Amino acid sequence: LLFLSETGGKDRRSGLILTIPLCLEQTSMDELSVTLDYLLSIPSEKCKARGFTVIVDGRKSQWNVVKTVVLMLQNVVPAEVSLVCVVKPDEFWDKKVTHFCFWKEKDRLGFEVILVSANKLTRYIEPCQLTEDFGGTLTYDHMDWLNKRLVFEKFTKESTSLLDELALINNGSDKGNQQERERSIDLNFLPSVDPETVLQTGHELLSELQQRRFNGSDGGVSWSPMDDELLAQPQVMKLLDSLREQYTRYQEVCRQRSKRTQLEEIQQKVMQVVNWLEGPGSEQLRTQWGIGDSIRASQALQQKHEEIESQHSEWFAVYVELNQQIAALLNAGDEEDLVELKALQQQLSDVCYRQASQLEFRQNLLQAALEFHSVAQDLSQQLDGLLGMLCVDVAPADGASIQQTLKLLEEKLKSVDSGLQGLREKGQSLLDQISNQASWAYGKDVTIENKENVDHIQGVMEDMQLRKQRCEDMVDVRRLKMLQMVQLFKCEEDAAQAVEWLSELLDALLKTHIRLGDDAQETKVLLEKHRKFVDVAQSTYDYGRQLLQATVVLCQSLRCTSRSSGDTLPRLNRVWKQFTVTSEERVHRLETAVAFHSTAEKILQECPEQPDAFNDMDQFDEIEAVGKSLLDRLTVPVVYPDGSEQYFGSPSDMASAAEHIREKMKLVSLKKQQLRQPEATTPES
Fold first, then answer.
1. C-alpha–C-alpha distance, residues 121 and 118, integer Å
2. Source organism's superkingdom (predicted)?
């Protein structure tokens, strides 16, 4: 049965030749029937219409078996068989029996059966259509033919099954109902065999068939044209064409499915991002509304916000990746997906940007709150420092230290003013941001929370304003007190300076105001200068007294005892009394000198011929007495109320002044003698 085949040869009617080799072993008629059915199914209907010539090779079999096979042909292929050639063995069966049986059954069989020797078979079939077994030249390799039939059958079975599967998949993808399409694709998405492998097998089979047809067999004999039908080359080509078509559609379905799967994955990831940002992410921001009441509290809130931002950053990284994937799909996607992709991209971007804006707003708010509390703390420390400075009693050593302290106080107050102004600016900026928080709101009414923040900010600014106002009031009082102390020190210094000036005037009076003048006119000028000098001293003394009176008033206002005024007033009075005594002595000496010089000059200017010249001799005695009195005063020191004494000028200066007076007294005495001589000579005459 293994060699039962269609060799590809043809009879003289162009019918196909079917060879049935029989062997000595027991032949199964059932298997023979099945094999015949298979072989008869291979040719086309056109070939079948031309009929078959069946060669039953009975050379190695018994007559009963041959007879059974011939009779079986009637049941299997009665219409297709036109001639049955039974090749008889060399030791032929009983001729009478065999001839009688076939002739008797001829009409009933429907085909002619002839018994022929192998070497006589060429009478009915051309040698070129017979194989070497029957003395022909047809090249035929049954195993090669069988292997190719097996390859063909396998290819046909796999390709047919694959075509059905691909058609089911492709037709399922074309359904209008989306749910049915997805369900169909899910159930039949992967074919049972690899389409690429089946296509490769078909191409290899087709290539070998075409090559043997056009190039001939290995023996050089042309391949029979019937091979196109026996090996079904057109079927292979048709199956390949169908496979390519369905596989192309299948690849498109896979591409669409892959794109849909990718789109669904992106959509799922987008919804994960959106759901987290609008869910837990937004809830985190809803619970964070405070700004803290100190630097430490604000820093703690900032640290908590950084943790929230860190969690959001992970989702924002997913957003960036998804956005890139969506952009790539938009660039390479179909028009039907553009709307959905753009909608996903827009939804994702809107949610992410809104959440990022809320995070940025919260971060800016906390930063503004931190700056506000930092400025408030600095201002509070400045106010504490200023208050501490104001609470310490002022005990400066002099006016310069008071001025320095006052300058430092003014600088601190100015710094507080600047700090408060900065706090107001920071507070107002923070209030403006809080007022804008309602526009974000995180899906929540933040009026109550905002009110607490606003009340806290306003409370801090009002408290700082009150503290600054109290410090300003204390600074005003301290400034007044310090200015009074400056004035007190100034008055004491000026009073001491007045004493020094008065002492200098006294010293100048004693040391430089010693001349008495050479004549009456000069002496009067000196007297007039002395009176002016005394006026200056009087003004200095009065100025000092006024300053000392002012120190008393200031001390009473400051409720303190001046450390210098108690000593300055006695000094001022003592110097003034010394100056007064010295001035009176100077005036007396100058007045005496004026009287002396006036009388002396009058006497010295009179002529002896004047009739009254000799009647005024008393003037000479008077001027002599004045001169002596003046000389005596020049030698007497000025005695002060405390008993101390002080001379005018140096002894040489006094000696010079006395010598000038004596010379003038000599002139007067000489004048007196001159006047007396004429009086003595007159009686003698």
1. 5
2. Eukaryota
In the chain, domain spans? 5-140, 141-166+194-212+225-278, 286-478, 513-676
Greater pLDDT, 176 or 463: 463
Give the model's pLDDT for residue 542. 92
Beta-bridge partners for 112: 83
CA distance 199 to 193: 11
Question: What CATH fold (topology level) applies to the domain 5-140?
Answer: Phosphatidylinositol Transfer Protein Sec14p (3.40.525)
Q: How far is it, in rounded angstroms, from Cα 461 to Cα 383?
A: 13
Distance CA 334, CA 357 (A): 33
Separation CA 592–CA 631 (nearest Å): 10
Per the prediction, the chain carries an average pLDDT of 79
539 and 579 Cβ atoms separated by less than 8 Å = no
Q: Which helix (H) or strand (E) holds 56?
A: strand 52-57
> For 83, how many CA atoms within 13 A lie in the half-sphere containing its CB?
20
Residues 6+ apart with CB under 8 A from 675: 608, 613, 614, 617
**Under 8 Å between Cβ of 5 and 131:** no
The count of other CB atoms within 10 Å of the CB of residue 496 is 19
Domain spanning 286-478: CATH 2.102.10.10: no
Identify which of 318, 172, 197 has the alpha carbon closest to the alpha carbon of residue 256.
172
User: What angle do the packed helices 178-187 and 142-173 form, to 10 degrees?
Assistant: 150
- Please state the pTM of the whole predicted model: 0.56
The span from the CA of 619 to the CA of 190, in Å, is: 167
What are the pLDDT digits (tens) for 292-351? 889 999 999 989 999 998 988 998 898 898 888 888 878 876 666 778 888 888 888 999
Residue 127 has pLDDT above 70, yes or no: yes
- Say yes or no to pLDDT of 561 above 80: no
Query: What span, in angstroms and rounded, lies between the C-alpha atoms of 506 and 540?
Result: 12
Q: Cβ neighbours of residue 23 under 8 Å, at least 6 residues apart?
A: 60, 61
pLDDT of residue 167: 85
CATH of domain 513-676: 1.20.58
10-21 average pLDDT score: 79
Task: Output the CA angle 18-19-25, nearest 5 degrees.
Answer: 140
Q: How many CB atoms lie within 10 A of CB 419?
A: 20
* Amino acid in position 223: W
679's tokens: 């009086």
pLDDT, residue 380, reads 92
> In this structure, which amino acid lies at residue 546?
Q
Q: Which sign does the torsion angle of CA 608, 609, 613, 614 carry?
A: positive
Per the structure block, which two tokens stand in for 314? 């992970």
Angle at CA of residue 271, ends 269 and 276, nearest 5°: 100
Give every CB contact of residue 403 below 8 A, 6+ residues apart in sequence.
Answer: 486
Which among 6, 44, 1, 48 has a CA at the least distance from the CA of 21? 1
Q: Which has more confidence, 473 or 96?
A: 473
Query: Hey, do 5-140 and 513-676 end up sharing a CATH topology, with the first three levels equal?
Result: no
pLDDT tens readout for residues 654-679: 888 788 888 888 887 887 777 777 65
Where is average pLDDT lowest: 176-190, 250-264, 374-388, 511-525?
176-190
Q: Write out pLDDT tens, residues 215-252.
A: 544 443 344 544 444 556 788 888 889 889 888 888 88
